[in-house]
Amino acid sequence: MGIPVPSDPANDHLNTQSVESMDRGRPAMKMSLAIDDATERALFERKLQESESRYRLLADNCSDMIACIDLEGRYLYVSPASYPLFGQTDCELIGRRASDFAHPEERDLLPAVIRDIVGGSGVRTLTFRRACKDGSYRWVESRAQGVRDMAGRVTQIILTARDISERRKIEEELRIAATAFEAQQGLVISAADGTILKVNKAFTEITGYAAADVVGQRASVLKSGRHNDAFFRAMWDEIGKTGTWRGEIWNRRKSGDVFPEYLIITAVRGPAGDVTHYVGAFTDITEHKAAEREIERLAFYDPLTRLPNRRLLHDRLEQALAGAARSNREGALMFIDLDNFKTINDTLGHDKGDELLCQVAERLQASVRRTDTVARLGGDEFVVMLEDLSCGRTEAAHQARAVADKILAALRKPHQIGTYEWESTPSIGISLFKQGRASVEDLLREADLAMYTAKNEGRNGVRFFDPEMQSTVLARTTLATELHDAVERGQLEVFYQPQVDRDGALTGAEALLRWHHPVRGLVPPDEFIPIAEETALILPIGQWVLEMACARLVLWADQEATRHLTLSVNVSACQFRQSDFVRQVIGTVERHGADPGKLKLELTESVLLDDINDAIAKMRDMKAHGLSISLDDFGTGYSSLAYLRSLPLSELKIDRSFVTDVHTDPQAAAIAKTIVFLGQSLGLSVIAEGVETQSQRDVLHSTGCADFQGYLFSRPLPLADFENYARHCHGISSKDG
């Protein structure tokens, strides 16, 4: 019989069975056994439900998508994260193959993973691109793990999918950055204080500095010294305002070589906006600069002679015309054509003609200042542009003619062309710059026309475009030619202007040159002396005057009225610069037997300042031989007490520009007084020239000046008149005595 289980409402869900047991003939016992413990099952199921709810809650709220797929790869469950990640709901996914949403290139990955897991593999990780609802793809990292039944067989696959698109992007950027950092562009990363933290391989290749050489150093280790502080202040101001600077800069390699680079500096700011680092990226532009120069050479320079071509000449002419208008100074354009150039090409060949053109180019450049322009237009046509000539057009024309004559002389010299000695002459046309000139073409055309005029008039010459200037220059050239023969023809004469002391007694004279022109009459010295200096005729003329002066001193020494007189002779810069000048003077004095103490050489300040050391040496040599030296036109140059104390002078001569206004201008009187005081302090005599009125003489006398020269006492006189003047003065002195 069955054993009833006590009735308990709490146990109604339990099942029992009654069994009867027989034991060795004893009466049978009925037992009630719990074959299936319903209570334990219920507890298990409840815990299972709680666990399922807990894990579903986690899956539903996880940012990663969690899915369950069968062994065919079909979705059985998809967590809600599928929508924010891919724009797809579980309804749109369940029942579809997961591999269908992979990128076409990666659709075989998941089936292979499923096979591996079924075959016994554990957790597998795969990375692939997964499609979104809008057709785009996101990179995902997925983990796959099998779910096994009681028999240990894999029945399902649990998949997780995490969006790693941003991570992939960062990784890609890092790879690009790493690749870029080792690119050909030099890179340097520094701290906010300029300390170098890192450099790349290109930095080392460009600068020669290894990372170990510069890391920890300041970026200034690369400074070339070519940029001043203002350059770097402007650079850092720009970085401070905009966060970046770019431009060309010169830096120095480890070898010491300076090179140009194109540099970009970028400031790196932290979250708070403060600068944490600087990144410098630079490229060596040495070859680029060389290429630029080559392009410029091809575009603006003649390939044969390397002189500026027509295009560059055109640009410089425009600038010169504008500059002349601003400065009010004249300029000149010379059009130069070689006479009979075709002959050398026809007889010796074009290569020899090219060699001649190159030699002509060199001689032209040697004949002008570095600031002037020499250009080749083509063939045998050259142009020389002179700037910053005198403000006056007449003087500017004379200056241009002097340069043209120098060019003529240079090009007339024989040219050594291989084994041949070739003589060539040029025809030169000159046009002066004028304010308001219409165009550069006008100027070129005028110079060209002047050049053809020179050719038509016999070649090997110079012509000005402006008829008025041509006449003026021609007259000056004619005067220079006539001056050349003036000494031999006896047209030059020495006049003597008396010099007196404060009592009016005659103490000496200044020898002044005069030219008796057979047609023009007496030519003023200010007209022919500049020509003599420009043409170097001053050398033979100056020597002739010195000869006359020494001879005259010898004759005066035998006359009572003149034996005490000194004679002053002006010395030009051209004479004084001769290396044997002192020897010439002393030789002339000794040859005539003149008293060197009676010969006084007058030098201007500008002559001495050309080479002060050479001047002092020559003056000391002359003074050692008994000669006296006077500093002419004192006060008009750049007198310095430092050098004045070193000069072995005997006399200072107050320039007439101060004497003229000494009685009406307090400033001029003060200057004269200062010169007198200076001379007396240095133990020098002082003489004032250009004294024309008694008032001037009285003011100068009041300053302490003891000697005078000027029209108040006498004009420059011919020899006979001067000697009569001397005898007259001597007679008065004798009577007074």
Describe it.
This protein has 737 residues and is of the alpha+beta class. The protein folds into five domains: 1-6 and 15-36, no CATH class; 62-169, Beta-Lactamase; 208-278 and 285-290, 2-Layer Sandwich (Beta-Lactamase); 305-483, Reverse transcriptase/Diguanylate cyclase domain (Alpha-Beta Plaits, 2-Layer Sandwich), CATH 3.30.70; 487-657 and 675-692 and 701-736, Alpha-Beta Barrel (TIM Barrel). It is 42% helix and 25% strand. The protein contains 26 helices and 28 strands. The strands form six sheets. Strands 20-21-23-24-25-26-27-28 form an eight-stranded mixed β-barrel, surrounded by four helices. The chain has a five-stranded antiparallel beta sheet with strand order 4-3-7-6-5, with helices on both faces. A hairpin with a 4-residue loop joins strand 20 and strand 21 (506-517). Helix 11 packs antiparallel against helix 12 and helix 19 (581-592) runs parallel beside helix 21. 29% of the residues are buried.
Furnish the topology, listing elements before pairings.
Layout: E1 17-23, E2 26-33, H1 38-61, E3 65-69, E4 75-78, H2 82-86, H3 90-93, H4 109-118, E5 124-131, E6 137-148, E7 154-163, H5 165-181, E8 186-191, E9 196-199, H6 201-207, H7 211-214, H8 229-242, E10 244-252, E11 258-269, E12 275-284, H9 286-300, H10 310-327, E13 332-338, H11 341-348, H12 350-366, E14 373-378, E15 381-386, H13 393-412, E16 415-417, E17 420-422, E18 426-432, H14 440-456, E19 462-464, H15 467-484, E20 492-501, E21 506-517, E22 521-523, H16 525-534, H17 538-556, E23 566-570, H18 573-576, H19 581-592, E24 599-604, H20 605-609, H21 612-624, E25 628-634, H22 641-644, E26 651-654, H23 656-659, H24 666-681, E27 685-689, H25 694-702, E28 707-709, H26 719-736
Parallel strand pairs: 18-19, 21-23, 23-24, 24-25, 25-26, 26-27, 27-28
Antiparallel strand pairs: 1-2, 3-4, 3-7, 5-6, 6-7, 8-9, 8-12, 10-11, 11-12, 13-15, 13-18, 14-15, 16-17, 20-21, 20-28, 21-22
Helix pairs in contact: 11-12, 13-15, 17-19, 19-21
